[in-house]
Write a structure and sequence with these properties.
The protein has 344 residues and is α/β, with parallel strands linked by helices. It is built from 12 helices and 13 strands. Bound molecules: nicotinamide-adenine-dinucleotide and 2'deoxy-thymidine-5'-diphospho-alpha-D-glucose.
Length: 344
């Protein structure tokens, strides 16, 4: 099968492309703009693989999208490309609307016109908003996004639904919880804390650190998306999650302990505006209907992740010394002690 992966140079996308090239016979075209979050080094070992082609480009570039779909005779699309960081969406929502909403709409139109017969929309559990202390998100939980990022993903998710309902275009939607693992950009909680601890910098925990996230190893997410690509029912939504809830503070303490660093590095900073309290996914549908099951338990996954960041120091040091540095300083102050939203 000829598969177009959008955003394949990012964290989850690059893990997904690697999995397809290693474990399937598919030909993979990776369309990625290489924003600050896209890094071709993530897939450097496949540059000369005849089953792989990288195209640098914007999902909003209609002509380019049309040409790639035709030239490569694309049969299926897995759509990861997005602006993905909640804090950046608080600082500047516009690019989230342009990429996540308009980009998805252009992609849908062109894919429909080209007769693509499977379109997997990689949405997120953040479209559901926040849970209190009890309960889980199920696929028909009403959408109630709270950040500009989540609102842009919910819009894209609903556009996909509309293309199925209106045009019978074969879209399948996944909504996954927080991923972690190799190649995650060090602005997200787990790699930020690992890199910060290794550099003995203050580790900024938002608010009181009691917010809960449901963590899933990236390889397990990729396997779920692959199942949905091959066996998901058009028009359906599949929740994906690890049944692995953890309070941020407990997680950061665990990481600091694994790295043999002092918990004194942990610094409480001003809370993220509109910070969702708790996410927890009920993944019964994909487990029962498609036979998916997470394979990597949390402690093993964290160990693998810590090991990867220890062995790939250059990867994240180069990121942290580049454009990311100015973002980091804006968000936390040069010494890492400022508030979470850039204000002292
Ligand atoms: P990421 O930020 O690491 O990667 C995003 C990729 O998209 C980058 O390579 C970037 O260059 C590319 N991109 C951005 N704008 C583009 C454009 N206009 N055209 C083409 N490419 C563009 O993101 P991630 O964490 O790997 O997330 C991937 C997808 O999965 C996103 O859609 C995100 O909403 C969703 N998701 C993420 C998580 C998570 O925990 N990270 C969980 C659930 C869903
Ligand atoms: O739930 C899925 C979502 O998970 C994806 O859709 C998003 O693309 C992905 O970025 C992630 O969103 P979160 O906002 O949950 O992830 P983040 O790593 O930014 O934050 C995780 C938790 O840690 C959250 O409660 C905020 C907190 N946090 C984060 C950072 C960066 C801190 O306490 N300190 C920090 O410095």
């Amino acid at each position: 099968m000829n598969v177009l992966v959008t955003g394949g140079a990012g964290f989850i996308g690059s893990n997904f492309v690697r999995m397809l090239l290693e474990e399937s016979g598919d030909r993979v075209i990776n369309l990625d703009l290489l924003t600050y979050a896209g890094n071709l080094i993530n897939l450097a070992e496949y540059e000369d693989d005849p089953r792989y082609r990288f195209v640098r480009g914007d999902i909003r570039d209609r002509d380019l999208v049309r040409k790639v779909l035709a030239d490569e005779k694309i049969e299926a699309v897995v759509h990861f490309a997005a602006e993905s960081h909640v804090d950046r969406s608080v600082e500047g929502p516009e690019i989230f609307i342009l990429t996540n909403v308009l980009g998805t709409e252009i992609l849908l139109e062109e894919c429909r016109a080209a007769g693509v017969n499977r379109f997997v929309m990689v949405s997120t559990d953040e479209v559901y908003g926040s849970l209190g202390d009890e309960g889980h998100f199920v696929e028909n939980t009403p959408l109630a996004p709270n950040s500009p990022y989540a609102a842009s993903k919910a819009s894209a998710d609903l556009l996909c639904r509309s293309f199925f309902k209106t045009f019978d275009f074969p879209v399948v939607i996944t909504r996954c919880s927080n991923n972690y693992g190799p190649y995650q950009f060090p602005e997200k909680l787990i790699p930020l804390m690992i890199a910060g601890a290794l550099e003995d910098r203050p580790l900024p925990v938002y608010g009181d650190g009691r917010n809960v996230r449901d963590w899933l190893y990236v390889g397990d997410h990729c396997r779920a998306v692959d199942l949905v690509l091959r066996r998901g029912v058009p028009g359906e939504v599949y929740n994906i999650g690890g049944c692995n809830e953890m309070r941020n503070l407990d997680l950061v303490e665990m990481l600091v302990d694994k790295l043999g660093k002092s918990r004194d590095l942990i610094t409480f900073v001003k809370d993220r505006p509109g910070h969702d309290l708790r996410y927890a996914i009920d993944a019964t549908k994909i487990i029962e209907e498609l036979g998916w099951k997470p394979q990597v338990d949390f402690q093993a996954g964290l160990d693998l992740t810590v090991e990867w960041y220890l062995e790939h120091r250059t990867w994240w040091e180069e990121i942290r010394s580049g454009e990311y540095t100015s973002y980091y300083e804006k968000m936390y102050g040069a010494d890492g002690r400022h508030t979470a939203n850039g204000k002292s």
